[in-house]
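Final report, section 2: Outcomes. Of the targets proposed, Two-component system response regulator is the one most frequently requested by collaborating groups, and we therefore present its record in full.
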Amino acid sequence: MRILLVDDEPMLLEAFRRSLRVERPGWHVALAGSGEEALAILGRASFDIVVTELLMPGLDGAALLRAVRASSPSTLRVVLSGQPRVDLMEAAEGHFHRFLAKPVDPEILVGVLEELVLDESGGLDERARRFVAGLKGLPSLPSLYARIRSLLAQEDPPLPALVALVQSDLGIASRLLKLVNSAYFSLERRVTDLGQAISMLGLETVKTVVLVRGAMEALQALKPAGLDMNALWRHSQAVATGARSIAAGEGQRPVVLEDAYSLGLLHDMGRVILALDPGADYGRIAEAPGLVAAERRLYGTDHPHVGAQLLSLWGLPQEFCRHIREHHAPTLPTAGFPAGLALYAADGFQEGAVDLFQDGRSDERILAHGDPERPGRWKTFLTTPLPE
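The predicted structure is given below as tokens.
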């Protein structure tokens, strides 16, 4: 991965470069002490990510971000700033993908940069990144979710502050309480204290619940052309219920059930993003039987890759994003609960029901990998789903 760090504080730049060299020696890191120097470097080489301060003398970070977006739309753009002026934030709005507040621990910066770029699996990833990064009007998470995510990124986030933010969204709060009070925990008394629920579930679970809810809100506010959003959400809800039923039938923990349900809700979000492109007519292919192949002919990429790229930009875990990317062609399971395979089965069941489980089909061989009894069990789970 090639990264350009831009800041007028040379000691800060060197500190980040040293940390990146230690943590990720395979990454190429270049430094620029000003916006003008950054543009000169970008004129000689391409970069996957540009990380810049906003408040700099001469060419400020907002102007640099606009220039990068115009000349290299596939480059991901991150703001790393202390107390940026309101006018600079307004000038940069819509031109960056992630905002980080100074001071930030170098290890946290490394983790954020890893979140931004999925493991490359060929040209489809690159074209998906270019499409998402260059899209005008790219949906962003509501400000509440950005604030919660920023708090969760701290090494030791203060629990009272986190509880206060979560309590401001009844949907998140109720979801966390429902998870912790599920039958799996076998609690003697019901947990009603949100701080206790967060402590019991763990910060990673809280982060995923928060980001998934934010993603759903951001997507449901969009009005893409040529796509029946009501039908899409009905399908996504059915797939989510099916994936969760599989996980429940296999006796998985509530956290796994929540992940399976979230995967189902968001698995087709890439279709919404593709349909936002005004230069293409998504309606021509929206109901095509070979949808993924049709998308690749029209866009050069497809909705699984585009959806995974956007979720990665929003900070969803890499494993979660990988399952979204592979939901039409899942990785064969090795150990643990195969969440990607459950998503694949639930989606296939809604699309073709009986066909997915017919004897001799390649789909059944994928499901049966490492467990010949899995297709039969999962068909039962999907046809007679367990209660939530």
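Residues 2-117 form a domain with the Rossmann fold fold (CATH 3.40.50.2300).
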